[in-house]
Amino acid sequence: MKSGTLTVANMSVMKILSVVVSSAILIYAAICVFMFFFQKHLIHIPYEQLVGDPLSQGMEFEDLYLTTPDNARLHAWYIPNSNSDYTFWIFTGNAGNKSYMLDAVRLIYDLGYSVFIYDYRGYGPSKGRLTEQTQYEDAEFLWNYLTEIRNIPPKKIVLHGRSLGTAMASWVATKTEPAALILESGFTSVTDMSKHIYGWLPIDLLLRWKYDNLERITQYSGPTLLIHSPDDEIVPYHHSVRLFEAAPGTKQILELSGTHLEGFIDNKEIYTDGISRFMALLSS
Questions:
Q1: Which of 76, 181, 186, 242 is spaced 20 to 30 A from 216 at the CA atom?
Q2: Can you say whether residue 150 is alpha, beta or left, with left for phi > 0 and alpha for psi between -120 and 50 degrees?
Q3: How big is the chain by its Cα radius of gyration, in Å?
Q4: Is 255 helix (H, G, I), strand (E, B) or coil?
Q5: What percent of the chain has pLDDT over 70?
Q6: Least confident of 25-29, 190-194, 276-280
Q7: Which residues, 6+ apart, have CB-to-CB distance to 147 below 8 Å?
Q8: CATH hierarchy code of domain 46-283
Q9: For residues 191 and 197, is the Cβ–Cβ distance under 8 A?
Q10: Cβ(116)–Cβ(90) under 8 Å?
Q11: pLDDT in tens, 97-150
Q12: Residue 1: its pLDDT value, please?
């Protein structure tokens, strides 16, 4: 009887353990499936509604709708400034839309530079199917618009990417010859960022969106400015350090304080002075 009772008890424990392990495997597999098919929605968080425009910040601007070769519709602002012949092409982050960048745009404008900024497909009024590849195709299309339609000399365009936008800026830099490249709160790659956040998942097998800044920065030999805060709670500061170390050209790193979203606001003077010093090198 004792032996039989123990056997039944052991079988019950084994059954419970089997259910627990099976459930854990199913949950893990479900998370992997979700990551594979829905990773776009983890990376991109677009807002359709604009919260302002350049005129609300005291800047005259051109409101542009540009149709790509595959009939996507991109919304952009061109903010001219007669105080300089340089144009800053600003690439936005992964959340919101370009209107959430108006404070940063105003700082660049106040330094005397023209600004071009647009929304990725699905962000703000921009329409079209968003993939990593279409983002690069749109960037090429917009580069041609700036240089061929607006006749801005390539060496008068400064590529300025922020957060996710650093991936677009670095890609354009490797395909063209801009005046300079500015990467603000940048990351080495989405693969590295995903391993930092989801290290318990097989990221190399699951990830389809790459955004490999580290590889691209080694292919760009022009002037490069890295801007980052060690306090950044979203993109670790060491990502910019690695990008700085990998950049083969003339390079600077500007250290801010504060959070991922507020660093440039909390350090306006350091931020604008750093960009001004960097730009002065282009004229020297």
A1: 76
A2: alpha
A3: 23
A4: strand
A5: 96
A6: 25-29
A7: 153, 154, 157
A8: 3.40.50.1820
A9: no
A10: yes
A11: 999 999 999 999 999 999 999 999 999 999 999 999 999 999 999 999 999 999
A12: 46
Q: What's the confidence (pLDDT) of residue 6?
A: 55
Structure tokens at 261: 């979203």
| Ordered alpha helix ranges (H), the chain | 2-43, 102-110, 132-144, 165-175, 190-197, 203-206, 213-217, 238-246, 263-266, 268-283
The Cα 216–Cα 224 span in angstroms is 12
pLDDT in tens, 21-35: 777 788 887 887 777
Sheet with 87-91, side-by-side order of all strands: 62-67, 73-79, 114-118, 87-91, 157-162, 180-184, 224-228, 251-255
- Give me the pLDDT at residue 133, please: 96
Whether the CB-CB separation of 16 and 23 falls below 8 Å is answered with no
* SS3 category, 227: strand
Average pLDDT over residues 214-241: 97
Using CA atoms, how far apart are residues 171 and 216, in angstroms rounded to an integer?
6
Q: Which residues of 222-235 are buried (b: 16+ CB within 10 A; e: fewer)?
A: bbbbbbbbeebeeb
| Amino acid at position 238, single letter | H
Task: Take residue 151 and report the two structure tokens written for it.
Answer: 């006749």
